[in-house]
Specification:
The chain is of the alpha/beta class. It contains 20 helices and 42 strands. The longest helix has 30 residues. The two termini are 43 Å apart.
Length: 806
């Protein structure tokens, strides 16, 4: 048996496979309760169990290892693996050396940093960043990690799936760079600085070339200082840029070392790593964390990368954050590998953050809509930390699917029901995709800023002093993440995200519109690419400015010259409002640029004096819409403005609701589709759904009669043109979810689920008229004409069986 991954999905013996998994930490649950937790996991239709392996738990004293529970029963890793296999579950193991997971010292042995304080990472002042933050490539740390791997990977090796064991996937390290991001500082230790100078030596032919690029006058690379403090000059900007790029190279070097250590110990498993980024219920920094693995993406396309989706409390504020995380990860990986959630929120790590099953069920369904083909519920089981091993105290996680004692909590039936739906629909869902004529560009350099724009700390980049007008973080947060990307989803316009540095012009040319949010700097190649896209016939929507520098802040006006646009003035009005395409007094971004209107047709004007601040410019075979400002989504008129932009080329929508508060996603198969209907509001919504027939692409509408009723914070996954077994016909549309369909002697039986006490409608295509239709022992009304069967019934129980007798 073999478990692997291709460019789209996971594979089990080369067949597409949806990873459905739950996180259970054996070291946080009494050994006698392991069978109960694993049985409940399997009954919830999960097929994988995932767990960390804390180094500090198993090597409790230096050189003393316990993997069979002889010192403490809950150290019996071997027993846990064997038990999972005996119960028919696959196992994902995460041996670190870091595990984080709110565990003491993030999983590292406490004795290690006490005995060897020299391995701790160093802050700019020369002190330690924190006692558990180490220098990844310190020889002493690598030496001890190698000893750990020798012992723990021997356990993994003997239980691999290729040897008849249950272990199918292995994590290589955990969230590399997360501490540097959270603390907002790089590693200034002598070892790290040595690698920094080596990085620069390889990048530049000599110190003169580096000095010319950075604006420095160093005698040699050994004299080169690492940047610290506030960025006030172009030299500071360039040195920090190298510092950011170095850390990406450094993380890759360390991860390559880990991979090599794993592989040389006869580990043939599918390897993966996971990317963090949600903080306080938002994912606006998630793209930054994705950029930290850019070098790994290039050198190790075989490694699968998972995302951590932790929305805390789902709401209208953060409901649109998960899709860009998935899409940007795919874009930076060149579209390779399945997208899966290595940590999909199930409960809460903070007692004060209460979660609700309906909200999480809605988020899980939205995740499937957004292409998530693997889910690891984190945490499936609550845990109780071993004594003095919890970072935040005794209890780990609240409101998980199971309590530490194995009791089913309210979230459990949500995971079980979704698993049941996937069991029937999995193969079809894995062969679906979204289609769009709209692309949104992602530009990684705007997110390579974790040290100049530190998380939760004082910003260290003085743009005005450097000679720039824009705060990169404000632009990307307000106009990119909460602007274009959020507006497209709210308005039900499908889009694809592409990495502007990696995607060729031929790829971008497949889209009629390309949205790019830019600041003053952009490399020459990317500027040329955007100019070529327009010249070739594309429509470029560019905001809030046109780049005029390269990444070193040297003059570079390739795109500006191609569009023949001239900026007259840049202002920060007290009331930043503009008039845009018939929308008056529209609240805009804080800075507004005024342009010479001879370059094109005016589409936006300033609020104060009616000067042109937005132009529609014909160029080559295409056009550019240059907006000298931009929009977030803080007023309803912003949605109207974005709708005008999305409709510039008549891109249209695949699916939508006539109720603007309902989100609809259509995923297309060969001749079938799934409609994901999502209500992110705490009020019931009623609507009709418009969608495209997956075979003909003609516009269709349902319900045929009445409206679809969607309770608060609820999502549906509804079939479209789904073939019934034994060629008995197909489900044309349905207002309820279909969990199973069977045909016996041409009689049809559907297992369905909807919300209780609401009207339901199923439209089928069959060859003949049925004699009777029964739903949960009650007769259902139906009409039959021209092979179309419309069934109407009151779904009192919420779930049940619909029997159609011919």
């Amino acid at each position: 048996m073999r478990f692997s991954a291709d460019q789209v999905s996971f594979l089990l013996d080369n067949e597409p496979y949806c990873l459905y998994s739950g996180e259970i930490h054996y070291f946080r649950i009494k050994k006698k309760l392991w069978p109960l937790h694993l049985r409940k996991l399997k009954e919830a239709h999960c097929r994988f169990v995932s767990t960390y392996i804390p180094w500090g738990w198993h090597e409790h004293d230096e050189g003393k290892f316990d993997f069979d529970g002889r010192t403490v029963p809950e150290r019996d890793l071997i027993g846990f693996i064997k038990l999972a296999g005996k119960m028919g579950l696959f196992v994902t193991l995460k041996p670190g050396p870091y595990i984080l997971a709110e565990y003491c010292h993030q999983g590292l042995p406490v004795w290690l940093t006490k005995k060897h304080p020299e391995i701790r990472a160093v802050n700019p002042q020369g002190g330690m960043i924190d006692e558990f933050v180490v220098t990844y490539m310190h020889p002493t740390f690598l030496s001890y990690t190698r000893k750990w791997f020798e012992r723990v990977l021997a356990v993994v090796r003997d239980h691999q799936i290729c040897r008849g064991g249950p272990v199918a996937m292995l994590q290589v390290e955990n969230e590399i760079g997360v501490n540097q991001w959270l603390y907002g500082m790089g590693d200034y230790s002598p070892v790290a600085l040595g690698y920094f100078r080596e990085f620069l030596r390889k990048k530049y032919t000599d110190i003169a070339q580096f000095n010319a690029a950075a604006g420095l006058s160093c005698a040699g690379f050994d004299d080169l200082p690492a940047p610290s403090g506030i960025v006030r000059t172009k030299t500071d900007h360039n040195l920090y840029r190298e510092w950011h790029l170095f850390h990406r190279d450094y993380y890759c070097r360390y991860l390559e070392w880990v991979i090599q250590e794993v592989r040389q110990r006869a580990i043939t498993l599918q390897l993966y790593h996971n990317v963090p980024g949600w903080v306080y219920g938002r994912a606006r920094d998630f793209p930054l964390n994705i950029t930290m693995y850019d070098e790994v993406f290039k050198k190790h396309p075989d490694i699968v990368f998972g995302v951590d989706h932790i929305p805390e409390n789902l709401s209208y504020r953060n409901a649109y954050d998960d899709l860009p995380c998935n899409e940007i990860l795919k874009a930076m990986r060149g579209g390779k590998g399945p997208v899966f959630a290595a940590e999909l929120q199930a409960g809460s790590r903070e007692y004060s953050v209460r979660t609700y099953p309906a909200e999480l069920e809605l988020f899980y369904k939205a995740s499937l809509a957004h292409g998530l083909f693997g889910m690891n519920f984190y945490m499936f089981s609550q845990g109780i930390n071993p004594k003095r091993k919890g970072h935040f105290g005794p209890t780990f996680y609240w409101e998980a699917a199971l309590s530490a004692e194995g009791k089913e909590e309210p979230l459990y039936p949500v995971i079980k029901d979704l698993g049941a739906w996937l069991r029937y629909n999995e193969k079809l869902l894995l062969h679906t995709g979204r289609f769009s004529k709209i692309a949104v560009g992602f530009y990684a350099p705007y997110y390579e800023t974790e040290f100049t724009h530190p998380f939760g700390g004082r910003q260290l980049y003085d743009a005005a002093a450097v000679g720039l007008k824009y705060d990169t973080q404000a632009v990307r947060d307000q106009l990119y993440f909460d602007g274009v990307i959020k507006a497209a989803q709210m308005l039900n316009y499908d889009f694809d995200i592409h990495d502007l540095e990696k995607a060729p012009v031929s790829k971008l040319a497949l889209y009629t519109e390309l949205f790019v949010v830019a600041v003053e700097y952009m490399d020459a190649d990317t500027q040329s690419k955007l100019a070529d896209y327009v010249a070739g016939g594309g429509t470029l929507v560019l905001m809030p400015t046109v780049p005029v520098y390269d990444l070193s802040l040297k003059k570079c006006e390739i795109l500006k010259d191609a569009l023949k646009i001239r900026e007259i003035e840049s202002r920060t009005p007290a009331a930043p409002k503009i008039h845009f395409m018939g929308l008056e007094d529209l609240y805009a971004f804080s800075r507004v640029n005024v342009y010479d209107d001879r370059a094109g047709n005016v589409i936006a004007r300033t609020f104060e004096d009616n000067l042109p601040c937005g132009l529609q410019i014909a160029s080559g075979k295409g056009q550019a819409v240059v907006l000298g400002s931009g929009f977030t989504n803080c007023i309803k008129e912003h949605r109207l403005a974005y709708e005008k932009l999305f409709n510039l080329c008549g891109a249209g929508r695949n699916a939508y609701a006539d109720n603007e508060d309902v989100r609809v996603v259509e995923r297309f198969g060969t001749d079938y589709a799934y409609l994901f209907v999502l209500n992110y509001h705490r009020a019931e919504q009623k609507t009709k759904i418009c969608y495209k027939d997956p075979a003909t692409l003609e516009r269709r509408e349902f319900p045929r009669e009445g409206l679809l009723e969607i309770p608060p914070m609820t999502g549906y996954i509804l079939p479209v043109s789904l073939a019934l077994p034994r060629k008995a016909g197909k489900i044309v549309s349905s207002t309820v979810e279909v969990y199973n369909a069977s045909v016996k002697e041409k009689d049809i039986c559907l297992t369905i689920k909807g919300c209780p006490h609401r009207a339901a409608e199923i439209v089928l295509e069959t060859d003949k008229k049925p004699r009777k239709i029964v739903y949960n022992k009650h007769k259902a009304a139906f009409r039959y004409a021209g092979r179309t069967l419309i069934v109407k019934f009151k779904n009192e129980e919420g779930t049940g069986r619909l029997s159609i007798t011919f």
